[in-house]
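RECORD TYPE: inverse folding
INPUT: structure tokens
STRUCTURE:
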């Protein structure tokens, strides 16, 4: 129930790592499938609703690329393990097993972590706090992108549609004509609303993270110091802004500061974001559908897939690159030089 509905909690505190809930590699695969099933179905439903299944498939292609790359990167980082241990011959073939159940190991943990942060689920079968820096970067990026690969039950679809509107706007600028999406002209009003939504996530995540790293009451809640401790705080606000619910696990959030601030971020991140989305929907619904012409940018082919993918990555990096540099990327470089936190 929790995974099909992308809720994520759990009757048992160990969540999807508990043997009563997830006893084998087979059940682990079933749980991963359960998280992805309805979000993917929503994309196919979208294609049918607009009368062109290819539109849905193009969005699904972008989601699939992000998801597959994320799983591959996370698995590679965890299978390679901690260089400080492998260099001295400590279990060189075992990779990073810390925080993982031996029933699932690196592959099962990587698949589950990508599924739970690529959707709105937030469940876990491994401890993200124990991931290598690059391994931890993958679920963090999934949250910062808005959980769009393939998204929550409905929420991932509208996030990627916002990015699709931004993409066709940029394409329109390049070809010198008014952008269109699904036969509706994208004009100044829609772009202003889209950018309002795009800026909401970094505003909430980065502002509250910046305040927290300057307060002793917040810094005392960290499980680790340095860049890893920064990642714990950044991840907490990224997770609540995206209404995901997962956590790095090293941060003690049951304090007055974090209970209050993450609650505010959770409410604003999901309720306030609905306003520009519904406004865009209402604006487009009032417009008449125009017939495609020779200058219409097609949104059902490979060119649009790679444009949307590029816009998604670039928008995320422009917003959050300084923050992820201070967190996982710095930690990765320091780990390679022998520094741990």
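DESIGNED SEQUENCE:
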């Amino acid at each position: 129930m929790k995974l099909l509905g992308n809720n994520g909690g759990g009757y048992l505190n160990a969540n999807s790592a508990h043997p009563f809930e997830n006893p084998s590699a087979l059940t682990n695969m079933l749980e991963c499938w359960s998280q992805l099933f309805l979000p993917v179905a929503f994309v196919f439903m979208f294609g049918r609703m607009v009368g062109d299944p290819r539109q849905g498939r193009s969005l699904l292609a972008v989601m699939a690329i992000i998801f597959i790359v994320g799983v591959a990167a996370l698995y590679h980082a965890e299978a390679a393990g901690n260089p400080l241990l492998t260099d001295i011959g400590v279990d060189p073939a075992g990779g990073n097993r810390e925080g993982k159940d031996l029933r699932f190991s690196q592959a099962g943990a990587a698949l589950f972590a990508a599924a739970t942060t690529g959707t709105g689920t937030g469940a876990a079968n491994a401890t993200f706090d124990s991931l290598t820096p690059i391994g931890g970067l993958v679920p963090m990026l999934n949250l910062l992108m808005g959980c769009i690969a393939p998204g929550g039950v409905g929420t991932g679809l509208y996030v990627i549609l916002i990015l699709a509107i931004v993409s066709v706007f940029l394409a329109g600028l390049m070809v010198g004509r008014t952008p269109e999406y699904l036969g509706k002209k994208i004009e100044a009003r829609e772009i202003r609303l889209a950018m309002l939504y795009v800026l909401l996530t970094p505003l909430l995540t980065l502002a509250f993270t910046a305040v927290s790293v300057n307060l002793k009451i917040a810094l005392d809640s960290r499980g680790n110091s340095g860049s890893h401790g920064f990642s714990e705080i950044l991840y907490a606000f990224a997770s609540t802004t995206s209404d995901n619910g997962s956590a790095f696990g090293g941060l003690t959030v049951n304090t007055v500061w974090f209970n209050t601030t993450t609650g505010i971020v959770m409410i604003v991140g999901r309720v306030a974001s609905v306003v520009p989305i519904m406004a865009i929907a209402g604006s487009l619904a009032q417009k008449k559908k125009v017939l495609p012409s020779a200058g219409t940018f097609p949104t059902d082919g490979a060119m649009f897939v790679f444009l949307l993918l590029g816009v998604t990555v670039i928008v995320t990096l422009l917003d959050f690159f300084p923050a992820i540099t201070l967190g996982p990327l710095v930690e990765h470089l320091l780990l390679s030089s022998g520094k741990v936190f």
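NOTES: The chain has one domain: 23-336.
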